[in-house]
Every structure is written in structure tokens, then in C-alpha cells.
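Page 42, continued from yesterday. The earlier attempt failed because a stray header line got pasted into the input along with the sequence. Redoing it now with the clean sequence only.
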Amino acid sequence: MSKELEINGVTQELLNGFADERWVEENWNGSWSLDSLDGKEFFVFSDLGFEGADDSSVEIALYKEDNQIFVLQQEVKDGVISFRLIVPPYKDRYFNPRDSWFGVVYGPDGEMEPIRRVKGLPRKIDMNKTVELFLKQVAEKNFSAPILVEA
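This time it went through. C-alpha cells are written below.
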């Protein structure tokens, strides 16, 4: 699976794969949730709307039972796909008004935003490989913490 598959393709695959299970339900304004069997962890897919014919923005958030959230955002602008990844730790000083999330942000180039340098996390990740693994994890209904592939 490659990142060019896009989040929308993975989401449709999920919805089709869960048609006969109780895990997927439409919640609000184009968002869907996928809950783990024990009900302690879940993915939320959100379609953040279309700005134009070739522009869109979607995100998948993985909520872990220990209050950790991993967020993968996909933006398509002028036909170009770019990704951002937001990972724990969450502290007030890590609030990102652009995304309305707390956490450490990796931009489309895989670089950790400089104002959020955190020990124990790679400063640069291979965004393509990390996104590929994240989307594979969602498609396989794997609720473990996403793997950050160091560049």
C-alpha cells in the first residue's frame, strides 16, 4: 500500500470491510469511528471538507486508552498530496492553532517543528514510509501506536 492510495481509499476499504460488523458508524458531519473490540481505543476519520475541485483535507485520529492521540492529516491542494503527523506528548505549550491539536507536529517534509523538539522522538521521519505504515495499520484494524520511521 502506498501513500498515493490516499486516506479516502483506505476509509472506503474500511467502511466496506466493516459493513457486517458493529464497529463502524457514521457519527457527525462526514466523520466515522472504528472502535476496538474492547471499546478502549478507536480511530476517527474526518472529512474536513472540500475547498475546490482539486482541494480537500481529511484526517485520521487514533485514540489510545492511555489518552494518547496520533493524528494523520492529508491535504490535497492543486492535485498535490501532503501529510502532517501529530504525536504525543501533549502539553499546553505544544498547542497548534493551525490544526487545533496539542502534540508534536511533523510537517510534510518529515521534519519535527522546531518549537516542539522533544527528546526520545526522531527529529526527522520518513513521511512516506510512516504514512504507509499508518494507513496499513488502519486498514488492518491494528490499534497499536503508529511507528515513526526515522529518516
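Notes: Residues 45 and 114 are 28 Å apart (CA to CA).
Reminder to self: strip header lines before submitting.
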